[in-house]
Amino acid sequence: MSDKTVLVTRLIPEIGVRLLQKAGLRVRMNQQARQYREDELAEAVRDVDAVVCQLADRFRAQVLESAAPRCKVIATCAVGYDNIDVAAAAKLGIHVTNTPDVLTNATADLTWALLLATARRLGEAERFVRAGAWRGWGMLQYLGADVYGRTLGIIGAGRIGTAVARRAAGFDMPILYHARHDNAAMNDLGAKRVGLPVLLAQSDFISLHVPLTPETRRMLDAEAFGRIKKGAILINTARGAVLDQAELINALRTGRLAAAGLDVYDGEPSIPKELLELDNVVALPHIGSATVTTRNRMAEMAAQNVIAVLKGEPPLNPVLPPSAD
Ligand code: GLV
């Protein structure tokens, strides 16, 4: 395969690059500490046989057209692929692959980190200590919310939602979930499938685990925020655009939500300053899958998908257009 070139749109763990090279592929990697702009991406994909990309690279039809007909596969190092027009890729004969499963546990762990951090106000308390403001133990300092025994509402019962539910057993939490279909693993955990309005009205913690699709975009809109139980805590490790960010800010200001733990934002990496000014927000820079082993596995998987397709084999982790999912 020495005549074939793979574009890697941004630095990835070495293990992925080595795998591609070992298969005899030429690797062209963007060495800049920033992602390509869309026009740069369209240019960079013009003369390559495959692309290993990341979730911030936008592959709209125009960029895909510039990659075709030479490019045979776009392997994203992520489980979510809302950044890629999969239907347009399919029409152009370009496979799209993702990295499911390997990041499930890391992302579920981070969801719980946010849940506990928001409930117990870790961000605020840590800022207080670092500011040198602590003058001694106080009975009324940083009182948070109980987690143990409270109701967890999970929106989206895929791999990550289910892994989040599994962890709730240790906290003895009743679980509600909202999903298009009944989920046997969720049911086995004792979780109860309910409609979205019921979940919003009854959950003390609400955690989002749906992919971003035309159906789920802004699924938490003004009406949905109005249904949320007063004083609930919202966690989002899915995609920012699943909720209406202006309504989120409003709900945090009015106390409808006691707090929010966010790893993702609509329009990231830009984050509205109104969100960052709120002390009851724990804000992270989209690090759900960011553990050393997980990121290594993701790079490895993306490389394996590229190698399979360029060898003329079917991709290992193909994704379908959202409507066919
Ligand atoms: C991260 O957000 C992913 O989709 O893998």
Specify the CATH homologous superfamily of the largest domain: NAD(P)-binding Rossmann-like Domain
Rg over CA atoms:
21 Å
- Number of contiguous helices: 13
Percent helix range: 25-40%
- Low-confidence runs: none
Got a strand count? 12
Mean pLDDT metric: 97
Description of the molecule:
Strand 6, helix 7 (159-167) and strand 7 (175-178) form a beta-alpha-beta unit. Helix content is 35%, strand content 14%. The strands form 2 sheets. A 7-stranded parallel sheet has the order 8-7-6-9-10-11-12, sandwiched between helices. Helix 1 packs parallel to helix 13 (292-310) and helix 2 (38-44) runs parallel beside helix 3 (61-67). The protein starts with a strand and ends in a 15-residue tail after the last helix. With 325 residues, it is α/β, with parallel strands linked by helices. It is built from 13 helices and 12 strands. The chain folds into 2 domains: 5-102 and 292-324, NAD(P)-binding Rossmann-like Domain (Rossmann fold, 3-Layer(aba) Sandwich); 104-283, 3-Layer(aba) Sandwich (Rossmann fold). Glyoxylic acid is lined by residues 55, 78-80, 103, 288-289. Glyoxylic acid (GLV) binds next to loops.
Sum up the structure in keywords.
alpha/beta; 325 residues; Rossmann fold; 2 domains; 13 helices; 5-stranded parallel β-sheet; 12 strands; globular; binds glyoxylic acid; 35% helix; 7-stranded parallel β-sheet
Annotate the secondary structure layout:
Elements: E1 5-8, H1 14-22, E2 26-29, H2 38-44, E3 50-53, H3 61-67, E4 73-76, H4 86-91, E5 95-97, H5 104-119, H6 122-130, E6 152-155, H7 159-167, E7 175-178, H8 184-188, E8 192-193, H9 196-202, E9 205-208, H10 222-227, E10 232-236, H11 245-254, E11 257-262, H12 273-276, E12 281-283, H13 292-310
Parallel strand pairs: 1-2, 1-3, 3-4, 4-5, 6-7, 6-9, 7-8, 9-10, 10-11, 11-12
Bound molecules: glyoxylic acid.
Glyoxylic acid is lined by residues 55, 78-80, 103, 288-289.
